[in-house]
Amino acid sequence: MKKLTAYFFRGLLFLIPIVVTIYILYFVFSKVDQIFRFNIPGLGFLLTLVLVTTIGFLVSTFIARGAANVIDNLFRRMPIIKMIYSSIKDLVNAFVGDQKRFDRPVMVEVLPGSGVQIMGFVTRDSLENVGLAESIAVYIPQSYNFAGNVIVVPKEQVTPLEIESGKVMAFIVSGGVSGF
User: Fold this and answer.
1) What is the tens place of the pLDDT at every residue in 116-155?
2) In terms of domains, do 120 and 143 share one?
3) What's the structural domain count of the chain?
């Protein structure tokens, strides 16, 4: 009976990520199909791929870049919208944009001498502008979440890691079960 239970849970651990991923993709693409009232399954998927790629191409051209900047400035000036828009845009750019920020993984010693350490990414080398010249900013992502915290620590409590940033992020976000 114990082996059957173990097989069942192993099956769940294998299937749940696959099923949830497929369900989310199905949900998104079926919504696109519903919006445009397509009767052909999968046409929403193709339309989404073509649309996103086309927008990426247009925003990369000199002429459309101006229009993109106008839209960007408009969203950054609207009171509540600017907070949401700026946060999302900065987070996306930190991972995949031209200004990647999570490219310097570090280990932070939480309490000196305690042996307790946290993995994160240096986001600012100097906080001199706020009177903390000997401190740096480190972003600590949360496991199984798209959130995190910025902590300010003395430079001597931070040790650079010689590991690829993507692997460190995968390690942290997965709760330490993958990435290396």
Assistant:
1) 888 888 888 888 887 888 888 888 887 766 677 788 888 8
2) yes
3) 2
DSSP string across 21-75: HHHHHHHHHHHHHHHHT--STTHHHHHHHHHHHHHHHHHHSHHHHHHHHHHHHHH
Nearest CA-CA partner of 106 in 163, 148, 145: 163
Indicate the SS3 state at residue 170.
helix
Tokens standing for 153? 């620590």
Q: So what's the pLDDT on residue 98?
A: 62
Q: pLDDT digits over 82-120, tens only?
A: 777 777 777 666 666 566 667 788 898 888 888 888 888
H/E run at residue 118: strand 117-124
pTM value is 0.50
Q: Which domain holds residue 88?
A: 2-96
Longest CA–CA span in the chain (Å) reads 67
| 15-40 pLDDT tens trace | 676 677 777 777 877 777 777 776 77
CB neighbour list of residue 170: distance below 8 Å, 6 or more residues apart = 178, 179
Distance from C-alpha of 32 to C-alpha of 42, rounded to nearest angstrom: 10
Structure tokens belonging to residue 122: 């240096």
Same-domain check for residues 79 and 30: yes
| Residue 148: both structure tokens together | 């995190």
